[in-house]
Amino acid sequence: MPGITREEVAHLARLARLELSGEELDHFAGQLDDIIGAVARVSEVADQDVPPTSHPLPLTNVMRADEVRPSLTPEQALSGAPAQEQQRFKVPQILGEE
Amino acid sequence: MTVTDLVSYEDALASYDPVMGLEVHVELGTKTKMFCGCSTELGAQPNAQTCPTCLGLPGSLPVVNATGVESAVKIGLALHCEIAEWCRFARKNYFYPDMPKNFQTSQYDEPIAFDGYLDVQLEDGEVFRVEIERAHMEEDTGKSTHVGGATGRIHGASHSLLDYNRAGIPLIEIVTKPITGAGERAPEVAKAYVAELRELIRALGVSEARMEMGQMRCDVNLSLMPKGSERFGTRSETKNVNSLRSVERAARFEIQRHAAVLSSGGSIVQETRHFHEDDGSTTSGRVKEEAEDYRYFPEPDLVPVAPPRAWVEELRATLPELPRLRRNRLREEWGVPALEMQAILNAGAVDLIAATVEAGARPAAARKWWMGELARSANESGRSLDELDITPAQVARIAELVAAGELNDKLARQVIVGVLAGEGDPDTVVEKRGLKVVSDDGALGAAVDEAIAGNAAVADKIRGGKVAAVGALVGAVMKTTRGQADAARVKELILQRLGVEG
């Protein structure tokens, strides 16, 4: 029986760095359970002869030659950064909660 | 920081058997990143080698680097692995600013190479087989600089700065099966394995594998089980151990630490640990996330890689001789004892001596210069032998001049100094510094006469039959000719002048 528990949703929320209230957890756990149930019905029709698919196109070995292509300039790369320092992306404290 | 209690290495091994797992990351030497065309060249300005793909910007799509795949197959084949007929990339999801995508593109349950082995040779010649679980393709992360804390540490930092030039550089992760049965030699095996792998990677030409530059990094997983038990204990994972010596020290330290915890009735916490170069200890890092926390799933933006069998066989045919076999062959050809060969290997001189011999030098001469004068010079300038400004062909030329009697060892050393100082090739240095051996009788005659006249007592002794005393006169001539005289010819001339048979 597929499905997802409230505890599993809380765990996923933590991994995804989402802060959810108890009310939201109840709400999303119910919704996600419905979605997983719906998707699970696919396996009822898919028999052993249907291989799992991760890509809609029957392609393999799409590769490029090892040739350098122009990069962005540092200014362009940093243009969307909320903060920068010394031509680098500036991010908030990483360790702190632990 | 708490002080870690240790038991002695001998006591630890008396009660427990170590089990190791080694994970080695190799940065490939491709010109571009694994999934985009950004350059991988070192020394660029921060964030000068990024694009929408490696920055994880919306709408960008990755495309696999063909040379990256080829290198992965070569490594797999050289490790006697099977090459997957079909495999996919997967997303390893985690939140950490070193990857702007919030996932690392890696491979999960479908590695490109699996089930192989690498035979490694310990210093006494014993061969130990390390089995390979898998080798898979992934990408490197960006470089973090932590600001505001003590000495660049992440703890206590107020914020961090990210340079994504390294994010996306191709990595091959090579994972061993649990290494059992090495007993007290486990740390030695770990070191020998990483050393052999490094030689192999270099021989394949897929990476320089310079550990000091982070091009090759090792994680050491270690656990202990009570002697006689078959059940593995809980392991610790010491991350980023980045020199051969450190690999050995980290394994040794963890054996002693685990033994102390276990024998006092405690249990090992499964965690990552940091290695400290200064005292060889490890300290606790974060508690290891379980594998499913990474929520791997197949990368939808990349199509599967299915290396055609004919291509795999083509690559197999191009594999070079395995470094260990080549070393043993060269050792026999050069007539060198095992211990000296080990010293040559440790000095990074195998390829240099081989190239010098190939350029025409006798093995003994090639060895003498690389392991003597040149090793000394490298040591003094804090560089490796292959960073010296002299080529094997130049060393071979110097050896040739010595063999032909045009230089003696003393002069040859001066030629080497000249070449290293950028004065030109050996012949140019000989010419400019006037370093040819003088064997011309006319030029030597005056110096010989002078030496005999100035050392009458010695000359008399020689006339009286004490031929061994001739050394003093030869020395005098060498002194007046500033080392450039042909010593053998000088001896002949002196004996001739004094009417004595040699």
Largest sheet strand order of chain A: 2-3
> Structural class of the helix and strand makeup of chain A?
mainly alpha
Mean pLDDT value of chain A: 88
User: Describe the biggest sheet of chain A?
Assistant: 2 strands, antiparallel
Low-confidence stretches of chain B: none
Structural domain tally of chain B: 3
Give the helix tally of chain A: 4
Q: In DSSP terms, counting alpha (H) and pi (I) runs of 4 or more, how many helices of chain B?
A: 16
Q: What fold name goes in the CATH topology slot of the domain at 6-45 in chain A?
A: Histone, subunit A
Instruction: Give the radius of gyration of chain A.
Output: 22 Å
Provide mean pLDDT of chain B, rounded. Answer: 92
Question: Main beta sheet of chain B: strand number and arrangement?
Answer: 9 strands, mixed
Oligomer: heterodimer
Strand order of the largest sheet of chain B: 3-6-7-10-1-11-12-13-14
Binned, the helix content of chain A reads: 25-40%
Give a written overview of the molecule.
Chain A: Its EC number is 6.3.5.-. Chain A: Residues 72-98 are annotated as: Disordered. Chain A is mainly α and 98 residues long. Chain A has helices at residues 6-15, 22-40, 42-45, 74-78, and strands at residues 63-64, 84-85, 88-92. Chain A has a domain at 6-45: Histone, subunit A. Helices cover 39% and strands 9% of the residues of chain A. In chain A, strands 2-3 form a two-stranded antiparallel ribbon. In chain A, helix 1 (6-15) crosses helix 2. With 502 residues, chain B is an alpha+beta fold. Chain B has 16 helices and 15 strands. Chain B has a 9-stranded mixed sheet. In chain B, strands 5-4-15 form a 3-stranded antiparallel sheet, with no helix packed on it. A two-stranded antiparallel sheet of chain B has the order 8-9. In chain B, strand 6 and strand 7 form a beta hairpin. In chain B, helix 8 crosses helix 10 (392-403) and helix 10 (392-403) runs antiparallel to helix 11. The longest helix of chain B is centred in the middle third of the chain and has 20 residues, at 244-263. The radius of gyration of chain B is 30 Å and the shape is elongated. The N and C termini of chain B lie far apart (75 Å). At the A-B interface, strand 1, helix 4 and strand 3 of A face strand 2, helix 2, strand 8 and strand 9 of B. Strand 3 (88-92) of chain A pairs antiparallel with strand 9 (159-163) of chain B, so a sheet runs across the interface.
